[in-house]
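Late entry, written up from scratch paper. The run itself happened at the end of the previous shift, but nothing got recorded in the book at the time, so transcribing now.
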Amino acid sequence: SGDDADEEDEEQDEDDDDEEEEHPASADSIPPPPALRVTARISFRPQSPHYSSLRRMLR
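Output as recorded:
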C-alpha cells in the first residue's frame, strides 16, 4: 500500500507543475507556501494515513 501512495503523489506533482506553467508570473512573484500545497493534498485524499500527522504539523 505504501508504493501506491508514492505513485499518487507523483501524479499530483505533475498536475502542480502544469498549473505553475499556466501562471509563471504569479508563481515567480509570490511562491505559494508549502503549507498550502499540503492542505490541498489533504482535501484530495482525506483517507491518507499521513492525514493526522500533517494536521499536527500545520497547527
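The mean pLDDT is 58.
(Scratch paper discarded after transcription.)
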